[in-house]
Every structure is written in structure tokens, then in C-alpha cells.
Specification:
With 405 residues, this protein is of the alpha+beta class. The protein folds into two domains: 5-197, 2-Layer Sandwich (Beta-Lactamase); 201-391, Hypothetical protein af1432 (Orthogonal Bundle), CATH 1.10.3210. It is 50% helix and 10% strand. The chain is built from 15 helices and six strands. It has a six-stranded mixed β-sheet with strand order 3-2-1-6-5-4.
Length: 405
């Protein structure tokens, strides 16, 4: 839903203010556009906007110097401002509401932070009746945590697009993108802001992400059921990876991607014969080649899945080593993404701490000691973080390993 809002700065004005030396009020004027005049104004503004849209679209196909785009944007902005000034001069605030609703959507008009006019659609979005909104502070319609940002933008006349939260009458918050624009009329400065309601889109995205995680979890469970010795390995590796990422203060998005990638990192083992996975003795060379193929097999499984590159990299590269001795490509150091290096350490730590058909389980302290003999294979910062987790005693219990108390 598109819900632009007009916010005006000084001087103060009430919704029934009559401007000096005129018969004009904020809600009306001495003259109204007829259909032909309104059509001419709208056509002029639309032509400017369509021209700008075509130019922006052309950037994807033809190189255009940045200064030419800036000049075009400035000319379009100037013509739109003149359009707004002309409408306001003839029809006041309600005229702007009526005209611009045709172009963009719905609006509210404020001066000194107080709403003096708004459209029906904006009232619906905010959950108020129109008469309830008149006289309200615009900041009262913004969630508390986002008000300092709003005040800063208003005081500095910032016109860049930004994200915020619209606070409705019921107390619910709507995720919105705001594109502000300034114009002046009769010596009064107004702020025109286009509101794009992203709430439903974000909720849909969240539901899709949740569904993807649930599907990944089900697939992980199906794979682990084939091998009782590694049952729960991927979920425990995921918990270790998340904790390492948190201690390394990675951002939430990256941490979430590491969580998803680690929960799928051994998905390629579905192609490995169960006799090889559960073999209690040393693997033959050809059997070891089967095992070494699982990262690439897993990557192929995810090839047609629409997920972030880091998730697929974790599946493909989690057996790469910092010294280049890993597989499948023998990458080293900076060639290996940090998110992958985190899963590599977590995977190795959990694997050593768990029981296998060919050996007993180890404690986490023993596991980290074993890994220290080959520390050159692991990212130094990641390994140091894993060591801290073990030495601090934070990762004891079956939450992190099925065989540690």
C-alpha cells in the first residue's frame, strides 16, 4: 500500500488558518481547478515522473553519467514542486490531498509537526478516523524507538528514503518505507513523504524463511536417521556455530545464514552408501573418495534452491582448511569465507566429541586438545573462540553433544 504523507515545518498553522491578505484557508481556496486545468497539471507532473522512470530504467542497459541523472532528477523535482505550489495556491491542503492521491496514493499534511489534513487511505493505515488525526503530532504516529530518527530528519530537512515504524491507534506497528520531499507554499515549508507499507511483505518473507528452515530441519532429520552414530550431529554443529558467531559479534543476518548453512552442511551424505558411513574399520581409498564427494553432492542438491550464497558455500566448503590441505578445492586462508570457517571448527569439534563406529567419544576438553595439534588448519580467531567456549565450560551437556555431560 502506498501512503504518502505531507509534513510541514515552520511557521505554525492550524487546520482552519486563513492566510493574510487572501480568502484562502488550509482546507480550501477562492478558486478550484476545473477538470481541464487539473488534467493539465497532472499530465505535466506525470510526464516528469515517467521521464525519470524511463531514464532510471535505461541505466541498466546504457551507461549514463551520474551528473546527467542528477540534473534530470533536479528538473523533475522542480516541476513537481511547482505543481504542488500551484495546487496549494488554488485549492489549499485538501486540493493537494485530492490531486496527489491520484498520483501516488494517500497523504496527511502537517505543519510544525501537527497534522492538519489527511486522506481516507492514510487514516485507514493508521487506524484512526480522519477527524481524530487532525491536530495530532506526527511523531505520535511513529513508534517510540524511531522518534529520535524522525526528529533528526525533520530538523535537518533530510530527504533520503528511510525505514521506520508507523504506530497505529491499536498500538500495532506497521513496517514502512518513507520517501520525503520538501516544497514551500505561501511562505510555509511542507514535507511530502511517500509511505510504502512493507508489513505484509515482511510477514510473508518471514513465513517463507520459517518454512525453509522447517523443510531443512526435516531433511536433516531424514539424513541423520540413516546413521545412528551421527544422529543429531548437524543440529549440534549448528548450535556450536551460532554460539561462536555470537561471540565473534557477527551481525544477525550473517549469524542466521551460518545457522541455516550449518544445519545443512552434511546434506550431501545422503548420496554416501550407509555401509561406508557405518563401517567400523578404516576406510579403503575408494570408500574415502565417496566420503569426500559429499560437499559437492550437497552443493548440487541446493543448486536450484533460492538461498544466500553463504549457505551454499558452507555446504560446499566446510571441509576446506586454512593451510590448503582440505577438499574439494584445496582453498586456504582468505579464500575461505569466515562463515564457512566457523562451521568448519564447530563441525570438527562436535565430530571429535561424538562417538563413531571406529572409536569412542571424547570430552570437549580432549577434543579441543586434539584440534590444537592441527590448529594451523583452522581460522585462528574462530579456533580461539571455540577454545574459549570449551575452557569456560559453557558448552557442556547434550545440547551441544550427545555424549558429554
Amino acid at each position: 500500500m502506498f501512503t504518502p504523507v505531507l509534513i510541514a515545518a515552520d511557521p505554525p498553522i492550524s487546520y482552519n488558518h486563513r492566510y493574510p491578505d487572501t480568502n484562502e484557508t488550509a482546507f480550501g481556496a477562492g478558486h478550484s481547478y476545473n477538470t481541464y486545468e487539473r488534467g493539465c497539471l497532472l499530465r505535466s507532473a506525470l510526464n516528469c515522473l515517467l521521464t525519470l522512470m524511463c531514464r532510471i530504467r535505461a541505466v541498466n542497459h546504457h551507461p549514463i553519467h551520474e551528473y546527467r541523472m542528477e540534473a534530470l532528477t533536479e528538473r523533475t523535482s522542480d516541476q513537481l514542486e511547482k505543481f504542488l505550489q500551484n495546487v496549494f495556491a488554488c485549492e489549499g491542503a485538501e486540493g493537494i490531498i485530492n490531486c496527489l492521491s491520484f498520483l501516488f496514493g494517500s497523504f496527511a499534511l502537517t505543519c510544525e509537526g501537527k497534522i492538519v489534513a489527511c486522506s481516507h487511505n492514510f487514516a485507514l493505515m493508521a487506524g484512526y478516523r480522519r477527524e481524530e488525526l487532525y491536530g495530532m503530532n506526527a511523531s505520535d504516529l511513529i513508534a517510540v524507538d524511531f522518534r529520535p530518527d524522525l526528529h533528526s530528519r525533520l530538523s535537518l530537512d533530510v530527504t533520503e528514503r528511510y525505514s521506520s515504524r508507523l504506530l497505529t491507534k491499536s498500538g500495532a506497528q506497521r513496517h514502512v518505507i518513507i520517501s520525503p520531499r520538501l516544497f514551500s507554499a505561501n511562505g510555509t515549508k511542507f514535507r511530502l513523504a511517500e509511505f510504502i507499507d512493507q508489513t505484509d511483505v515482511l510477514l510473508y518473507q518471514q513465513s517463507q524463511v520459517a518454512m525453509f528452515h522447517e523443510t531443512a530441519s526435516a531433511l536433516t532429520c531424514a539424513i541423520e536417521q540413516r546413521d545412528p552414530y551421527t544422529n543429531g550431529h548437524m543440529s549440534r554443529t549448528t548450535r556450536l556455530s551460532i554460539r561462536i558467531a555470537e561471540l565473534m559479534t557477527l551481525d544477525q543476518k550473517t549469524t542466521d545464514l551460518i545457522s541455516l548453512g550449518s544445519s545443512l552442511h552434511d546434506i550431501g551424505k545422503i548420496s554416501v552408501p550407509i555401509e561406508i558411513l557405518n563401517k567400523p574399520s578404516k576406510l579403503e581409498p575408494y570408500e574415502w573418495e565417496f566420503i569426500k564427494q559429499h560437499p559437492e553432492k550437497g552443493h548440487r542438491i541446493l543448486a536450484g534452491v533460492n538461498c544466500e550464497k553463504l549457505v551454499k558455500d558452507i555446504v560446499l566448503l566446510h571441509h576446506e582448511s586454512q593451510d590448503g590441505s582440505g577438499y574439494p578445492y584445496g582453498l586456504q586462508k582468505d579464500e575461505i569465507p569466515l562463515g564457512v570457517a566457523i562451521v568448519t571448527v564447530a563441525d570438527c569439534l562436535e565430530a571429535i566429541a561424538g562417538v563413531r563406529p571406529y572409536r569412542r567419544a571424547h570430552s570437549f576438553n580432549d577434543a579441543i586438545a586434539i584440534m590444537e595439534h592441527e590448529a594451523h588448519k583452522f581460522h585462528p580467531d574462530v579456533f580461539a573462540t571455540a577454545r574459549y567456549l570449551v575452557k569456560s565450560g559453557e558448552i557442556t551437556g547434550t545440547e551441544f553433544s550427545a555424549y558429554n555431560d
